[in-house]
User: Fold this.
Amino acid sequence: MSDQHAERDEVGDAAPWWSAPGRDVWDAPEPSTAPQPAADRPPTSPSPYGASPFGAGPYDAWTPTDAYGQPRVDRPRPRGGGPGTGVLLVLALVVALVAGLAGGAAGYLLADHNKDKVTVSGVSLQPAPARNVKRPPDSVPGVAAKVLPSVVQIKVETSQGQATGSGFVIDKAGVVVTNNHVVADAQGAVRMTFSDGTETTATVLGTSPSYDLAVLRVKAHDLPALPLGNSDSVVVGDEVLAVGSPLGLSGTVTSGIVSAKDRAVSTSSESGSGDSSYIDAIQTDAAINPGNSGGPLVNLNGEVIGVNSAIAAVSSGGLGGQSGNIGVGFAIPINQVRYTVRQLLADGKAEFPIIGASLDPQYDGAGARISATGANGQPPLVPGGPAEKAGVQPGDVVVAIDGKKVEDSAALIVAIRAHHPGEKVRLTLSRGGDTHDVTVTLAAHDG
Assistant:
C-alpha cells in the first residue's frame, strides 16, 4: 500500500483525501467554478501533444495541474513530508505490531513451555542433559586423560631450522625417553614443554643411534611417570593410542590397533651423518605424523608398549610429494627400549649385538649374502669373530635365523639386534645349493 501511495505522490500533488469529507481518495477532484481571466495567465504555446482531453482551452505548460491534468487548486499540506506520510507511518507501525503480536501468540500457543523442554509443531526439543565428562578408565578418553600429563613436546634448533618431536616421562625424578633422531642434530638447548604449559630445558644423558633412542633429564621431581608394559604380550588387533605432537600440535591423541608385529624397519639419519637404525617394530594404524617421534604407543591399560619412531612414506612422486600418515606407523618395542635405556642411564652409551661379518649390499636375491671380498679394506669376516668361529664363509647366504625366513639384509640385521650381546642364534646357510645350520654367539658393539 505504501509503495502505491509513494508512486502517486511523485506523479502529482492532489489534495489530501482527508481534507474533503465524503469523497473517496480515488475520486477525481471537481473542476474550479471560477475561471482565471485570460489577462492574468502567462503566454501559452500550443500543446505538443494536441488539445487537452479535459478542456478545450490551449495547453499551458506552466499552469499547475493535478494528476488528471486539471488546474490544481492549492490547499494547505501537512508538515513532515508528502501527503499521508504521517498516517502511512502510523499504519506501518500498527501493522508491524499486530503481526508481531500474532506471531508471538501463535508461537506461544504452538509451543509447550515445560521448563527447558520445548515442543513446536509436534517436534519435541529435549533439554540438554547434565554435563558429564567422566569416562571409564580403560576407555580411549580415560587412557588419554591418564597419559597426557606424562607426554612432553620437544623443540630443538638444527642447522635446517627448528625441529619438533615428542617424549614421555619414565621416572618421577625427571627421566624422559625420546628418539635419537629428535635430539641428534640439536644446536643449543633442548627445550621441553609439558601438557600444562610448563617449559624447561633438558640435558641429554645418552643416545643410541642403532636403536634410535635417547634419554633426557629435566630438573624436576614428582613428575607423573608412565608405566612400561611388555611388548612380548602384544598381539595383532590390540587397541592402542599414539600420543605426541604431530606437526607441532602438542597433546594430540590418535587411536588404532596393532596391525603387525616383528616388522623389519630400517631408517637413516636425515642429517646425512650415516647413522642408521634397525627396528624389529610394532606396526600400527594409529595416525602417526612427523612430530610424533619419541612419543609413547600405549595400550588400554595406559602402559607404554612402544616408542613411535617411523612412518611408511610414499615416493616423492606420490600424493603430490607430501609425506604423512597413510595408516602405517612403526614403534620400537618397549622391551628393547627398557634394555637400551638401562644401558644409557648406567654408562651413557648402549651396545648392540653383531655376528662379525659384512653383508653384500649388491645382492638382491632371497636372504642375505655374506660379502665375498669385504669393504673399505676390511675382510668379509672379522678374524676370530663370532661368524668365523661358527664356520660361516664368505659368499654364504643366510636364509633363516632361528628358523624364521630372512627376506633381505635389513631383515637379518633387525633380527640380530632384537637379541642381546652374549645370546646365541641359529643361522641357516645356503652354500653351493646345500643348506646347513650353524650356531653363533653374538658379540657386542657400541652404538
Observations:
- The domain at 351-446 is CATH 2.30.42.10 (Pdz3 Domain).
- Residues 312 and 328 are 6 Å apart (CA to CA).
